[in-house]
Amino acid sequence: MGMGLPFAPIPASVHLVGIGGVGMAGVARLLQQMGCEISGSDVAKNRLTASLEASGGTLFYGHRVANVEREIAWAVRTPAVSEWNPEVMNLRARGVPVYSRGNVLAALCNRRKTIAVAGAHGKTTTSAMLAWILTHCGLEPGYVIGGETALPGWVADLGGEGPLVVEADESDGTLVAYQPHTSILTHLEWDHPERFPTEEALWKCYQRFIDQSGSIWIRGDDQCARHLTQHRPDVNVVGLQPGCDLQLLQQRDHPDGQDFTFCVQGRRLQGALTLPGLHNTWNALMALGASFEEGATPEQALDALSRFPSVARRFQLRESNGVWVVQDYAHHPTEIRAVMTSLAARKAPRLRVVFQPHRYSRTLRLLKEFADAFSGVSTLDLLPVYAASESPSLGVDSDVLAEACRERGIHTKCWHHPSSLLQELNSTAVEGDLIALLGAGDIVTLFEQITPGSPGS
Question: Which domain holds residue 15?
């Protein structure tokens, strides 16, 4: 147990199974910067794996025993890889410890001052905003973020003397392993029924995280967060009511983003964001509040925030032949409703929404809420459910969701092959159209391929 960690010493030879995902690549980069000799495997090469290779990592494409036939001190496994993975099975048979990605990240974070961002929605954007602000205010933060940013290392970096900003994920239950100096609760809502069969089970996980945190930032309209933190004296509230630590006074969306006005410690301040939507205002205010605690001045922080370039797959926009395409990770009804409001602010003459449900369990438990979230959409295209290692035995798929949407008057079509949908989008989209790609899964492959009117469309 070297250096206070529950696994082998650092530096060490570490293998990461499923290294190409955003979360795993972030852990791999931190370990590289800490002097570890890293290797890893995944099904395909991407920008993150190429970066890790360029930094000296040894990467394999495809999962096989030959990838781990050498001396390895310990290994890390992504939740997307099963215990029956050939590398995992071989490592365990040889007595090499294999740890979950979430537990390793929490252990690394607990070695230094950490600001942990948790919640059902907005974690990635809020943590990226905070890391961006602290970086541009010269406060030398480290960060581990569940999305590709414009910061060095894209998803992670040890930084300097400042705090480590981490996106703390509740989906695998490892939220309880964190002991942050400061925590931000973006918004609490039941999700991940595959792990938390009841709301009470999830609230117990959050309660332990809260009990192990230092100062806490919550939203004033989040009744669950208020309940779970009611016994804590060091809670900071962001909200609309007078008396909030950061009080939002006014917010206005416009085609290039938004402007907002807020009050902190009696000062009336104005901010700007390139991202639209009230949900992003709350994210920004949370990030600002935590940055003020770290010593950022309002002037520095707001200047940095106005230049925040967002995160990949968080209302990410591109234009092709006069057609605007936006992709967003929204895979929960609450997130979809927020994105739909932001899309409406762009006032496109025609909006086409494409959605890929993520997990059969989530689709089953929130079927009605998903259908309600798309109310008002004229045309909805559904891709097959992205299983994320779940079995389809739950009896719900995109066809079931499509029927629920049709009952609400939404013209809905299911596509069993993304390539067929892509061909149709490219051949029918016209200048001025807005195409929104929502959800988590392989829908991400469509974003760069939508080129309306191009040869071969």
Answer: 2-104
Give me the amino acid identity at 79: P
CATH number of 358's domain: 3.90.190.20
Between the CA of residue 354 and those of 374, 383, 390, what are the distances in Å? 11, 8, 22
How far apart, in Å, are the Cα atoms of 258 and each of 92, 268, 272, 305, 310?
52, 17, 6, 12, 13
Q: Can you give the CATH number for the domain in which 43 is found?
A: 3.40.50.720
Give the model's pLDDT for residue 454.
63
How far, in Å, CA of 47 to CA of 16, rounded? 17
Tokens at 24, concatenated: 């795993």
Judge whether residue 396 has pLDDT over 90: no
Q: How many domains does the chain have?
A: 3
Q: How many CB atoms lie within 10 A of CB 6?
A: 13
Does 124 qualify as catalytic in the annotation? yes
For 425, phi and psi rounded to 5 degrees? -60, -45
From the candidates 114, 124, 229, 281, which is the catalytic residue?
124
Residue 160 CA to residue 139 CA, distance in Å, equals 8
Average pLDDT over residues 229-245: 95
Does residue 90 share a domain with residue 149?
no
- Cα angle at 204 between 199 and 207, to 5 degrees? 120
Which of 104, 122, 152 lies at the terminal end of a domain, its last residue? 104
Q: What is the pTM of this model?
A: 0.82
Neighbouring-strand partners of residue 252 = 259
Map tokens 């974070």 to a residue: 109
Residue 383 contacts residue 443 (beta carbons within 8 Å) = yes
Residue 315: per-residue pLDDT: 83
Q: Can you name the residues that pair with 386 across neighbouring β-strands?
A: 358
Q: Which amino acid is at 304?
A: A
Q: Cβ(378)–Cβ(391) under 8 Å?
A: no
**Within the chain, what is the greatest distance between any pair of CA atoms?**
63
Q: Which of 87, 167, 170, 335 is catalytic?
A: 167
| Of 82, 104, 126, the domain-final residue | 104
Do the domain assignments include residue 455?
no
CB 364 within 8 A of CB 387: no
347 is catalytic: no
Task: Tell me: do 44 and 155 sit in the same domain.
Answer: no
Determine the Cα–Cα distance for residues 60 and 67; give it in Å rounded to an integer. 7
Q: Which of 114, 123, 149, 334 is catalytic?
A: 123
Q: What is the pLDDT of residues 4-62, one digit of tens each?
A: 467 777 899 999 999 999 999 999 999 999 999 999 999 989 999 999 999 999 999 99
